[in-house]
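quick one before i forget lol
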Amino acid sequence: MPTAAKLMGAVFLACTVGYISFVYLGNTPSVTVGTEYLFVNVLIGFLVGWRSIGFDPGFGGMDSIMAGLRGIVSFVFLSTCVFGIWVVIVKLQGFFIKSFESVFTSWADAAMIYLKIIWDPNVILALVVGGIISGIASGLANRFWT
């Protein structure tokens, strides 16, 4: 059932992820998936915020902060997997992958490139701060609109 806590967690995490995707993924020459992946990342952030943060947001304290950090960890894992699949699909469309084994190695390479981008200290700081803000916003929404 939709609640204000789920909506706040989803919107704030989607905004955080959209900012990170626009600033860091858009300016990285090793990422060749195009600007449409920005919207995929925002959608993943919205869904993860809805499900992970909004599911049990607490009431604005430490539980809310932990819910926000849980949402960020879930986002990084899911986004890395989807990014690898996205790159493999783009390479398959361009006939760059010739054998079945190359699908898995291409997925692993793309996932490692994505993790290398996320491992930047500025990205980690933005993710942590955005996760904490989205968790606290979700917790406060849970406190005031329940």
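fyi The mean pLDDT is 87.
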